[in-house]
Structure formats: structure tokens, C-alpha cells
Specification:
Blueprint lengths: L1 H21 L3 H14 L6 H6 L4 H18 L3 H6 L1 H27 L3 H11 L4 H5 L7 H29 L6 H30 L5 H21 L1 E3 L2 E2 L2 H19 L2 H40 L7 H33 L3 H6 L3 H10 L4 H8 L8 H30 L6 H19 L1 H8 L3 H19 L4 H4 L13 H27 L5 H19 L6
Antiparallel strand pairs: 1-2
């Protein structure tokens, strides 16, 4: 087991370093390294190759809740509301359309059994939030947000289609009424559970002042939401969507976070969250690469029909990948035409995109972890399971490699301008917060009951910071902190009072930022960036906290 941990850790480390140096999508490099590990002679790396992928329920119940919770936390709710109609369409109808088109294509051209074809279609229908997140810096922030929001919603749709596909694979017939009921019940229960868990979690975490306790509770929260929703089953197949519950709980907790999370909890807890998500996501792609040679060999050994053979599988992979891309392109253009014909309002006109923009969105719709998770969740014993895993994993690799590498060229062709709106919004919001705080400085000093000397010392810091922002500098980079710098003339009492005033300034700026967020003037991600800077200021003023 130690051999496995070392191999996985080094693969994740080296893979991300190579990806950073070469500017490749990390998932591509991680899968390739996993494939290399899988091809090393078995006697040299036997334990890694015998490890296999985690059991199907582990992928859905452990990997997905953590990764989805983190990605939902980093998704802009303002942009989601702005493009809500398009996001809902691509997160639901596009998934259904893509799954149906892929299933029909495989059945028509290759004679693939309908149950197997539907499972493959369900697995390849959704885009992946984690894979889309790797596009940061390549696309405008609004495009990234729309793609991430779509990929968070479509996971719930995918798992409902997957449940239906398993029923078909087991010989059951589907009817429109029960199928529609499954969709509505799954989403309704997921939303209700997500709101309930989010509300309860928000109340509880307000009392957790120890960063370690807080982090343990927050890591547990997505699992609670997932489990409760999945347990609410009124009939076979009629159960809540754990994925939807996790996403809704994450959005609720993120929105209310500024009111209930202390600076210390964010400062010490968020890096742990980022680390866990980073490791799980990297491990998933490495393990898929490790298993590809074994899946290829096993598929030939267990094949009972010609169309499940390895050679035939290569053609299925290519056709399935092309179909998934084509289905997305067709849907995006058709729905845009319908919406423009039905809605000619000024608001809709402002949201209109271009044909080239839709081509970029088509290429940016990467398949990733959710597709792998669905394929790996096919119960052992289902006919064609190895074939399903091979096809889905291979299409994911094609999506990552071909689409990921082609995307920069497509973006250049589309002539999408560079987007620095978030950086400008961060600077503008910081400047506004400092100006507002400076206007209230005398009142804050009076409330903190500090001496005139302490007030003047802090006032000079504020004036310097404001001058930097007004000169279009990033003042945070110019001044590393607001901590006191004694020069020999500061008494202990004055230093203490200056720190009290600094804390009051930080709290006032947080209130200004929340007000801007509530009015829709700044994005939630912008609030996160500035909030983390303020947290760092507060931790430096207060000093380290006891973690045990």
C-alpha cells in the first residue's frame, strides 16, 4: 500500500508541475502518467497496477461531493442568475439530448445494445466542473462561470438518466410518466435537502471558532447533504439527487459565509479544502490512466459479442466523441435561434452571443470526472461493463487532449478579447471600500476609544493605501499588511489601540463589500478575493490562533 501512495503522490506532483511548465491541461498529463504507470512491467510496480479503481460507490459518494462542493463554492452566483435560462437549458435538456443522440448513434451504426448505449450516452452527456475549471485564464470569466454552472447542474440530470439507463440494461421498459416524475422528484428533493442542510450548517458553523473543528464540520457537510437526499426514496428509482443537494448547500453556505465564518476559520480552513479537492481530482485521473491497459485487455477476454471487441471499441470511441461534440454544437445553435424568435426583449439582446462564441463553448465543453464516475458506477455483472468503461475513459481522454489542445487556437480564431474585468472589479471594489472606511475613520476611532496619536498613525496608512488605489496600483501588493511597525516612539498602549482600530477598519470594509455584493455591484468571487486579503490582515494583527 505504501508503494501505491508514493506512486500516486509523485504522479500528481510531477503531472501538475509538467502541466504548469507546458501550459497543458493538468488532467491530460495526469492521465498520461497514469497510463505510463499502467504499462510498467507488473513485477516492478505490481501493487499500483493491482490497485484498481475505487469501488463504484466510492467514486460517487466520496470523490464527487468534495469536488462539487468546492467548485460550487468558487462559482459566481451573480453570473448564474444573469444567464439562468441558458444554464438551465444546457444543464438539463442538453444532457438529455446528448445522451439520446449518442445512444441512438451507437445502436444504429454498431448495433450496441440499447442499455449499454444509453449508459454510455448518460456518462458522456455532461461537461465536468473540475475539467472546465482548468480553462481559467483561457476564456473570459463570464464564459467560465456559465460553463461551470452548467456542469454543476448537469450532474444531477446525468445521474437520473444513468438510473434509467441501468433499468433498460436490466430489461425494464420505460414510460414517459414515471420517467418525468423521476426527474422532477430527484431535483425537487435535492434542492430541498440542499437548502435544509445549508441552513442548518450555516447556523452550526457560526459557533465553531476553532479552525480545525470548523474544517472537519465543513468537510462533512457535503456528505451529509448527499446521503440524506439519496436516502429519500419513495419507489425504485424515485430518490433525491445527492449531487443537486451538494451544489445547492454549497451555494447557500457560500452566500451566507461572510456572516458566519470567522477570518481565522477561512484563513486556516480554505487551504485544507483546496488541498483535499486537488488530491482527489488528481488521483482520479491518474487511476483512470493506470487502468486503461487492464480495461483494454479485459474487454477482449469477456466480450460475448463482436461489437464489444477492443478493435471495434476504437471506432465506437471516435464516433461517440464526435457525436458528443456535434450534439452540443447543434443544441446551442438551435436553442439560440428559438430563444431569439420568442424573446426580443432588450435584456435578451444584451445577452446575445456570437456564432464564433458558440463554437468556443462547444470546444470548451470538456468531459471529465463525472463521466468517469458514472462509467465506474456501473454495477459489476452488467453486460458490457468493461466496454462501457473503456469507451467513456477513452472519450474523456480525447476530449481533454484534442479539445483542450485545440481550444487556444479556437479562441484566437473567435477573436475573443482578453478579459480583465475581474481584476478591475477587485481594484475598484477595494478602492471604494477604503474610501468609505476613510470617511468613517473618525467614527470608527471613537467607537474603538483610541487615542488621537493612534488615530493619526492609522490615518497615514489609510491615506497611503488610498493614493495607491487612486493611482491604479494594487495597493495590497504594495503594502503587505496593516500590522504595526514600531519605530521606538510607539508605546505598548498605542500599538494595542492602533491594532484595535485596524480591526475596526477591516470589519467596516467587510460590511461595505457585503453591501456591494447584495446590490449586485461585485461578484461573489471578487468578494472572496478581497475577503481573503482582509482575513490575512486580521490574522497578522491578532497573531496565530490555537488550533487544538
Amino acid at each position: 500500500m505504501l508503494e501505491v501512495l508514493i506512486a500516486l503522490s509523485l504522479a500528481i506532483l510531477i503531472g501538475n508541475i509538467i502541466a504548469h511548465k507546458t501550459r497543458l491541461t493538468p488532467a491530460i498529463v495526469l492521465i498520461v502518467l497514469g497510463l505510463v504507470l499502467g504499462l510498467i512491467p507488473a513485477h516492478q510496480l505490481h501493487e499500483v497496477q493491482e490497485l484498481g479503481l475505487p469501488p463504484p460507490h466510492v467514486i460517487l459518494e466520496i470523490f464527487l461531493p468534495i469536488m462539487l462542493f468546492w467548485e460550487a463554492r468558487n462559482t459566481s452566483w451573480r453570473e448564474i442568475r444573469k444567464f439562468m435560462r441558458g444554464i438551465i437549458l444546457t444543464g438539463t435538456l442538453l444532457v438529455i439530448f446528448t445522451a439520446a443522440v449518442i445512444a441512438w448513434t451507437l445502436n444504429f451504426f454498431f448495433g450496441t445494445d440499447w442499455g449499454v448505449a444509453l449508459i454510455i450516452g448518460a456518462a458522456l452527456a455532461p461537461t465536468d466542473a473540475t475539467a472546465v475549471a482548468t480553462l481559467n485564464g483561457k476564456l473570459p470569466k463570464s464564459s467560465i462561470t456559465i460553463l461551470k454552472a452548467e456542469s454543476l447542474i448537469n450532474d444531477g440530470t446525468t445521474l437520473v438518466i444513468f438510473a434509467l439507463a441501468l433499468q433498460v440494461a436490466n430489461g425494464h421498459h420505460l414510460s414517459l410518466g414515471p420517467t418525468t416524475g423521476m426527474f422532477f422528484y430527484s431535483f425537487a428533493v435535492g434542492i430541498f435537502v440542499g437548502l435544509a442542510v445549508g441552513w442548518a450548517g450555516n447556523k452550526i458553523r457560526a459557533y465553531l471558532t476553532n479552525p480545525m473543528y470548523f474544517t472537519v464540520f465543513m468537510v462533512t457537510t457535503p456528505f451529509i447533504a448527499f446521503l440524506i437526499s439519496e436516502q429519500l426514496e419513495i419507489a425504485e428509482g424515485f430518490k433525491g439527487s445527492g449531487v443537486v443537494a451538494v451544489v445547492v448547500a454549497a451555494i447557500y453556505l457560500t452566500y451566507n459565509g461572510p456572516d458566519t465564518i470567522t477570518a481565522q476559520n477561512r484563513f486556516y480552513g480554505l487551504p485544507i479544502w483546496a488541498f483535499i479537492s486537488f488530491v482527489l481530482n488528481g488521483a482520479l485521473f491518474v487511476l483512470v490512466g493506470v487502468q486503461m491497459p487492464q480495461v483494454w485487455r479485459a474487454m477482449d477476454e469477456v466480450a460475448q459479442h463482436n461489437h464489444y471487441s477492443a478493435i471495434n471499441g476504437v471506432m465506437v470511441v471516435l464516433v461517440a466523441w464526435v457525436t458528443s461534440v456535434a450534439a452540443r454544437f447543434v443544441f446551442l445553435n438551435v436553442t439560440v435561434g428559438i430563444i431569439r424568435a420568442l424573446d426580443r426583449s432588450e435584456k435578451q439582446r444584451r445577452l446575445r452571443g456570437t456564432f464564433r462564441g458558440r463554437v468556443v463553448s462547444t470546444f470548451a465543453g470538456l468531459r471529465g470526472g463525472i463521466s468517469l464516475a458514472v462509467a465506474l458506477s456501473v454495477p459489476v455483472g452488467v453486460e458490457g461493463r468493461e466496454f462501457i468503461i473503456f469507451v467513456v475513459a477513452a472519450v474523456v481522454i480525447l476530449s481533454m487532449v484534442v479539445q483542450g489542445l485545440a481550444l487556444p487556437a479556437v479562441i484566437r480564431w473567435a477573436k475573443i478579447p482578453a478579459d480583465d474585468s475581474e481584476e478591475r472589479e477587485i481594484t475598484d471594489a477595494s478602492r471604494l471600500a477604503w474610501n468609505e472606511t476613510y470617511r468613517n475613520l473618525d467614527e470608527l476611532a471613537e467607537q474603538a476609544q483610541v487615542s488621537p496619536e493612534a488615530l493619526e498613525g492609522v490615518r497615514k496608512e489609510c491615506e497611503h493605501r488610498i493614493r495607491l488605489y487612486n493611482d491604479h496600483h494594487d495597493a495590497y501588493k504594495e503594502i503587505s499588511s496593516m500590522e504595526a511597525r514600531p519605530d521606538g516612539s510607539h508605546t505598548a498602549t498605542q500599538l494595542e489601540q492602533e491594532n484595535m482600530l485596524r480591526l475596526a477598519i477591516i470589519d467596516n470594509q467587510r460590511q461595505v463589500l457585503k453591501h456591494l455584493r447584495n446590490e449586485g455591484k461585485i461578484d461573489m468571487n471578487v468578494l472572496h478575493v478581497i475577503q481573503e486579503r482582509l482575513d490575512l490582515e486580521e490574522v497578522r494583527v491578532l497573531g496565530p490562533v490555537e488550533l487544538e
